[in-house]
């Protein structure tokens, strides 16, 4: 590996190719120039390239303990610096999330009180991506530093269905499995059906919110996470409203949420995209702060021999807090 003038897209593909050749940590013989190149990329300006290079740094043990500690300290400071814009803090969350270290959890959770919605979502997704980070979250829930309502329906369901008795018991004392607030708002939203319609505003709402996971008449996400909504006009409008406000009441066949825990401690939730004798693929919603639509590379492929546990949830992957986002 040497200096390159190729676009970052080509460089990312190259790093992904190198990363995929490793099944685990290795002591790969590298020249001084190659080590310096990887280290330089791991601290560069391109977020995707930096994350890929950092993965190689960890796999090939190219970072000393002191260097790692200095890097993590800088990331934690960046995450909790409210003077920085959300995109910079989101990158810090993404980099901290890749660490295989339970001690990262308190630093991630510490960013919640000052987090904007996108950052809030990214932090919780990072916490739930590894089982060993959950106890730290339960600590702050018990201390009332974070409210249970901060968690999504899927996240609450994961805690309440945990196989670890201690975690499940603690979660059961803090959480409820359902959210009745949305259904309490149903009459107010249903009454709005009598008001004049605004197709231009509806188109904008679909593109900004619904189109992140759905398609309808050619609009929306490239790889659909949820059902195609082109035929929704054939359904009763009040039924559509109820489905939006309480998505977990009725889940369409084929759109159940699966949670897969790996032997390395990672946890993934999503819809089952496909499966083969050796692997399965989960389709996941766009990450917080994502500026582009999902691509095939963002589908989560999990080898069957790496699966420790898999279960289906009774909670929809669709957000349950749209009542807070949408107006009647």
Your description of this structure?
By secondary structure, the chain is α+β, with helices and mostly antiparallel strands. It folds into four domains: 1-63, no CATH class; 82-177, no CATH class; 181-250 and 321-325, no CATH class; 257-313, Roll (SH3 type barrels). It contains 15 helices and seven strands. It has helices at 8-20, 32-41, 47-59, 65-79, 86-97, 104-109, 117-128, 134-142, 153-160, 165-174, 181-184, 186-191, 199-208, 237-245, 322-325, and strands at residues 215-216, 219-220, 257-262, 267-275, 279-283, 300-303, 307-313. It has a five-stranded antiparallel sheet with strand order 6-5-4-3-7, covered by helices on one side. Strand 1 and strand 2 form a beta hairpin. The longest helix has 15 residues, at 65-79. The protein is globular. 25% of the residues are buried.
Attribute tags:
disordered N terminus; 15 helices; 4 domains; 11% strand; 328 residues; two-stranded antiparallel ribbon; globular; alpha+beta
Task: Provide a compact summary of the structure.
With 328 residues, the protein is an alpha+beta fold. It has helices spanning 8-20, 32-41, 47-59, 65-79, 86-97, 104-109, 117-128, 134-142, 153-160, 165-174, 181-184, 186-191, 199-208, 237-245, 322-325, and strands spanning 215-216, 219-220, 257-262, 267-275, 279-283, 300-303, 307-313.
